[in-house]
Design brief:
Length: 294
């Protein structure tokens, strides 16, 4: 793997790591299998791209994207809690609806941001090359969100979310409205996913309706890889492990795509196959370790 490919994988791991933290929030904290992220990531990118091309400040466009993602997540939570639709099906319905909504938002399948202002411009203005600017900025943003998430999960509402995911009957008996917790929790998760999509759009210079395909698989793979290597432990370790898992996942993908096995090479079309193998290895590694090293 070349140095350029390594830096590119780290950059992708950091920017997609924000999405992974959102997946961690629903998957681990709320125990809510949420496929909305496949639609909320391009939603964030679409809202951000349209806002920037309409003359709105790139930083402000990130908050608009977060609001859109939060609303999408709330719709999934509402379908599940208030209408009694199974959480998996509720998220699929929202994801399907978002495909059409994203096209409507962009008035087409994609929007180009070439020549438009971005949040990377101030760092590039200091003379830093583009690839280093993005890594530095995404590292700062990722670290800030990790600190926020650790703080949030130690608040009263964060502890309520953890209890809702762990034992909803118990927390309901304490007088907590779990429906509101789920709606707000899934909304917050998708706000982070949409925020990640907005950053990706500004970094890549375009928003596309298909850029969210496979997002949930990559997110779950990153969470599982992080937990397998760094352990789950407490909240702090679990949150940091999720972000680092995203970086390791992208590095593993980059290494696999650069491998040459006797003339056989992987192509980008093999990405889902590589992801599936990584998830299987991550899930079975603890059992194999326990069997041979205990």
């Amino acid at each position: 793997m070349t140095w350029y490919a390594f830096l590119g994988a780290v950059e992708q791991g950091l920017v997609y790591g924000i999405m992974v933290l959102g997946v961690y929030l629903t998957f681990r904290v709320l125990s809510f299998p949420d496929l909305t992220v496949d639609g909320s990531l391009p939603l964030g990118a679409a809202v951000c791209a349209v806002a920037i091309t309409s003359g709105i400040d790139p930083f402000l466009s990130l908050f608009l994207a977060m609001f859109a993602g939060f609303f999408a997540g709330m719709v999934t939570g509402f379908l599940n809690t208030k209408l009694g639709i199974l959480h998996l099906l509720a998220s699929i319905l929202t994801m399907i609806a978002l495909y059409s909504i994203n096209i409507r938002v962009m008035n087409g399948p994609n929007v180009s941001l070439l020549g438009q202002d971005s949040i990377l411009d101030p760092l590039i203005g200091f003379g830093l090359p583009g690839y280093l600017s993005s890594i530095i900025l995404f590292s700062i943003i990722g670290a800030a969100i990790v600190v926020f998430l650790i703080w949030f999960l130690h608040t009263e509402f964060g502890q309520t979310m953890l209890a809702t995911g762990d034992n909803p009957r118990m927390i309901t008996s304490q007088g907590v409205n779990t429906h509101s917790v789920i709606i707000l929790g899934v909304g917050l998760s998708n706000a982070m996913v949409a925020f990640s999509g907005a950053l990706i759009a500004q970094n890549q210079g375009a928003a596309d309706v298909n850029m969210g395909v496979g997002t949930i698989v990559a997110g779950l793979a990153s969470v599982i890889v992080g937990e397998t290597i760094f352990g789950r432990g407490g909240i702090m370790r679990a949150v940091i492990a999720a972000l680092l898992g995203s970086i390791l996942y992208r590095l593993a993908i980059a290494m696999a795509l650069g491998m040459n096995l006797g003339g056989f090479t992987f192509t980008p079309s093999d990405l889902n196959l590589i992801t599936a193998v990584l998830v299987v290895l991550a899930l079975t590694a603890p059992k194999i370790k326990a069997r041979f090293f205990s």
